[in-house]
Amino acid sequence: MNYQELVFALQKFWADKGCILAEPYDVEKGAGTMNPFTFLRVLGPEPWNVAYTEPSRRPADGRYGDNPNRLYQHHQLQLIMKPSPDNIQELYLESLAAIGIEAAKHDIRFVEDNWESPTLGAWGLGWEVWLDGMEITQFTYFQQVGSQDVKPVAVEITYGLERLAMYIQGVENVYDVEWAHGVTYGDIFHQNEFEQTSYAFDLSDEDLLFDLFEKYEAEAVRVIKLGYVHPAYDYVLKCSHTFNLLDARGAISVTERTAFIGRVRKLARMCAEVYLQQREKLGYPLLKKSSEVSA
Amino acid sequence: MDKKILLMEIGTEEIPAHAMPGILNQLKTLAEKSLTEARIEFGEIKTLGTPRRLSLLVSDVATNQADVEEEKRGPSAKIAFDKDGKPSKAAIGFARGQKVKPEDLITRDGYVYAVIREQGKSSAEIFKTLLPKIICDLNFPNNMRWGDLDFKFIRPLRWIVALFDDEIIPFEVANVTSGKISRGHRFLTIRNEELGIRNGLNRGEFEIAKAEDYIADCEKNFVIVDQNQRRDMIAKQINEVAANKNGVAEITDDLLEEVLYLVEYPTALAGEFETKYLKLPAEAVITPMRDHQRYFPVKTADGKLLPLFITIRNGGKDYLDIVQHGNERVLKARLEDAQFFFNEDRKKSLEAHREKLKTVVFQEGLGTVYEKTERLVKLVEKISAMVDVEASNSIRAAKLSKADLVTGMVTEFTELQGIMGREYAKLDGEAAEVCAAIDEHYMPRFAGDAQPKTTAGKILSLADKIDNIVATFSRGLVPTGSQDPFALRRQALGIVNLLSGARWSLSIREVVELAMDLLKITDKVGREKIQQEVADFMRLRVKNVLSSSTRYDVIDAVLDDVDDIFAVTLKAAAVEQFLKTPDSTKNVQSFVRVGNLAKKAESTELNAELFTLDAEKVLYGAFAAIKVATDELVDKKDFFGALDVLKKLSTPIDSFFDSVMVMDEDLTIRKNRLALLKSIDNLFAKIADFGKIVQ
Hints:
The complex is a heterodimer.
Chain A: H1 3-16, E1 20-22, H2 36-39, E2 48-57, E3 73-82, H3 88-98, E4 108-112, E5 115-117, E6 122-131, E7 134-145, E8 148-149, E9 155-160, H4 161-169, E10 178-180, E11 183-184, H5 185-203, H6 206-225, H7 229-248, H8 254-281, H9 285-294
Parallel strand pairs in A: 1-2
Antiparallel strand pairs in A: 2-3, 3-9, 4-6, 5-6, 6-7, 7-8, 7-9, 10-11
Helix pairs in contact in A: 6-7, 6-8, 7-8
Chain B: E1 3-12, H1 20-37, E2 45-50, E3 53-62, E4 68-76, H2 77-80, H3 89-97, E5 106-108, E6 111-118, H4 123-137, E7 157-164, E8 167-168, E9 172-173, E10 176-179, E11 181-183, H5 191-194, E12 205-207, H6 214-220, H7 227-244, E13 248-249, H8 253-260, E14 266-272, H9 282-292, E15 296-299, E16 305-314, H10 320-345, H11 350-354, H12 369-387, H13 392-400, H14 408-412, H15 419-427, H16 432-440, H17 455-474, H18 488-502, H19 508-518, H20 524-546, H21 552-558, H22 565-579, H23 584-598, H24 614-635, H25 639-646, H26 650-659, H27 667-685
């Protein structure tokens, strides 16, 4: 199964289970959780079932394309279901079968992992799912996001696509993964990995990045005060990525770190609060729709 | 009366392994308490558990509650009956309220009583509310909501089995209705699929007909529900697999206990890794294996690490080769990472890494870790001088002690702090004692861990711990209740055990003074507060350590001044030994009599010429004769020797009290006699407060 088929199979599986399929969001981010389809949509009482792939950038994890396992940018397949279905673990295991991983032939375990994102003011309880000792999925019941209680609870399932593809294809090096038609992961991303890592560790302009952070922050505040959540949230994402770049550069001391994280968290909370007000004003359209469907 | 078996299985999504032992204990306590309160007799309570189930199994449970008879007091007899002895309105009202007939009221001690007899209900009836209450009363370190429920539990609750022999106890918790359907192993229960799904059961579900079949039914469905049975299976399998590979598995209790609650049906298997990774320090290989992958390391009979690991699969023996290969791949990637960090770290000496500590904050508002290492240098100099040992190795170790915190290896595997420092120092050619001290200064790392062995390790450990305690206290963060984020209690306990083990006398107060100077704590009131808090904090640890071996009254008697901890432990031992000597009861009585009156003394100023009575002259003489010798023995910390001398005062003291009136009308004489008693009492007080000894 090539990488592309893997993605198709998972998308098809979850689409059949009632999820809408969405596209990746076009602002840089560290994880699929930061996509507004997760961060904003898990808030409030409206039902929400979505699956999408997400390129996730983690500047500090870059290895110039030299490491067979670590990447500046990796890909996630992210699934959100709100409220969390009672049989979600069984559905998840079925989804593995859909990509050729039959549980009976492996050792699959749900190992405690309590997820927390201080930047997003978010936390949840759940597991890392281990496949023969390898973490392949993050499985989380969100309890709070944007410092707001998530109610009903949304479940987030995040598949690490490169790892799954490596496992399924039996390759030891991520760059050898076949994406499709004989084109490898390395053909597509190796140069990007080298350049992005070089930029993050060696070439970025600290002064510019600090300056950008301040400006993005100010713009996020200005726009959220006008009540426009989505453009404001884009700037929150930009703040977060800029912070990650500064962090990778070693430009932020341990003391400053906490303060920077606190600044982003505050912005995220403002967006979450305004989003909740906005949905309430709109009369929770998806809630109405779901009661119409079930009626 | 009939006895039955009660079974409740709470089915959940995977519960965190570390929480399981605590939850099972709690479940047992709650069940015991609830059954007792409900007056339902029972035999033995067992709690069993796997990642997906918490089970309660109670034997010999009575089918009915015990009956009760209760008396409720009503109005006084005077009010309750009229002249003719007939019940008054008050009595009738009271009887109605208690649901008894007025003529059934009894009179005793001037009051009427209603005797209420309550017949015990059927246990099955009681369980309908008792069992769900037990579930709701369970407390967890972390709990969560799921779906659209407000109910909180450690992980989502998915099924409940509640059986009293073969009778279902019906109730509902968190939208789950109890019944007799359980779920087998996630991946091994294909049997009912093969058999064709019957009775409307879903995949993996099975029916428990009778509570007594529970453990056997689970096993048929590939769930070893009894953790003790499972633990034995795991340990046995690990040893067999290791023996097959001519190795010895290193089974640590923590890891075994964790793995135990990660699997419902264990199968051990071995995997291999390339020998090239054995060139890394052993801990750098074992840590990713054990702490990150939950593998058991395998060693040769003489303790050398083998390129092998053992993992416990949650499942059976089929397709073990696939599982093995997968695990080998993961470990290879982890070891490759470790190799990468190790090589990167080795591009610089440990001393060169130390520079980067200037960017690492120690504690909020208390500067960097680099500054901390500078304080440690000063502290080890001082402590070395106090206990009279050579300081150069501990000074070097203090400088390097925290440098590994900024290495790639420790950033990745934080549990290797100190250990990588030791290894990198060795490779840099540092002195052996310096290397050892870098590792040892963190000891004890957990309750029951070893103490530092080298002198430099001991000195540095004391310095680091005292600096941590003073720094944290200076921020107002004295540990309270369960709040002890820096594990200061463990550190203080480490200090007590270290000092008594090393037989080192030193003044904690003096070290704390220097630590405060170095932390630039200048406020005089604040400094005295910290001194007081540290002394109180240490006192509790000393008490804690002594309590395992010493009488509690003896501990109380020696705890007044804990500045020199080693001396306190010696005093406790001396007093205990003294209390076992002949005549100790009488001697202690004499000491206490002195102490009681000495409290009235204003000074110890003596005028020997004022002593006129024989008994007081004799006592004064005896005191003068032993004072110097006692002081010398106390200085040498021969406290038993000192007590042995002091007991010579016992007879003169008794004669003194028999024939001398201390509280003489002449104030000068009275003062002089009190001063004598006070002077004697001061000698006792150097060892213990004998007033606290319970005879």
